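User: Can you recover a sequence for this backbone? Please restate the input before giving your answer.

Assistant: Of course. Working from this structure:
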């Protein structure tokens, strides 16, 4: 039995997220079907995390357990011949049996793109949040680093039905949190040990309130300490969010 590590990029617009769901098109389900067509096996690839419906990935990591003897490089070619154009396998390599894409991860980086001009080009509309209204971008840059460090991020976590009623810690460590300008886009990039359900989109929604003047930068710390989801801002739309990479 081989443990193959796959690096994936996908346009999440037309998928109901990563995780397999009944009667819904998902990235995991589509990948599973493509692998099955190649190997003849019924397999379920495991991902580094569950991106939500409409969220994209530049470097999602997945593993698949297979007895197939096809070389890893050929496996990439075979999968990309079968998969829809919205999912690409960028690389494949054989890894140790105990490697797990989620449990072995040391850090993840997410990026959120906001398009700031009055008119959003139609070819970008699926991949950014179009927000042409006034924002104090300096205040947003000031507020972003306030979430760095190890904190309980309950205020920024949506209820996750997959976690059920079990008691699970909402403590995570954020290594960096910053906004930057790239042409017409205001970009948020955050790197951390892990992320809770909707956490990045809730951070963006809250930091946007700082830009609007509804909140002050210092209020972000107050919201963080409140450990109350109702204290934070609304969830930003999924289309602007990307899983950039996973570190091991």
């Amino acid at each position: 039995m081989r443990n193959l590590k796959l690096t994936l990029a996908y346009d999440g617009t037309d998928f109901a997220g990563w995780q397999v769901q009944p009667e819904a098109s998902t990235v995991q389900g589509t990948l599973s079907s493509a692998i099955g067509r190649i190997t003849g096996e019924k397999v379920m690839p495991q991902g580094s995390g569950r991106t939500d419906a409409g969220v994209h990935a530049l470097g999602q990591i997945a593993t698949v357990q297979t007895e197939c003897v096809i070389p890893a490089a050929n496996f990439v070619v075979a999968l990309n011949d079968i998969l829809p154009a919205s999912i690409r396998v960028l690389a494949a390599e054989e890894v140790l049996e105990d490697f797990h894409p989620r449990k072995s991860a040391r850090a993840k980086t997410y990026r959120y793109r906001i398009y700031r001009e009055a008119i959003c080009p139609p070819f970008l509309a699926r991949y950014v949040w179009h927000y042409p209204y006034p924002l104090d971008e300096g205040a947003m840059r000031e507020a972003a680093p306030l979430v760095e460090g190890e904190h309980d991020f309950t205020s920024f976590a949506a209820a996750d039905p997959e976690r059920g009623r079990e008691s699970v810690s909402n403590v995570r460590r954020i290594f960096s949190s910053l906004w930057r300008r790239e042409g017409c886009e205001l970009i948020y990039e955050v790197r951390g040990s892990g992320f809770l359900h909707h956490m990045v989109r809730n951070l963006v929604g809250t930091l946007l309130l700082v830009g609007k003047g509804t909140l002050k930068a210092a209020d972000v710390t107050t919201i963080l300490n409140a450990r109350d989801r109702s204290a934070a801002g609304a969830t930003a739309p999924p289309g602007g969010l990307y899983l950039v990479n996973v570190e091991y």
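That completes the design. The CA atoms of residues 177 and 190 lie 4 Å apart.
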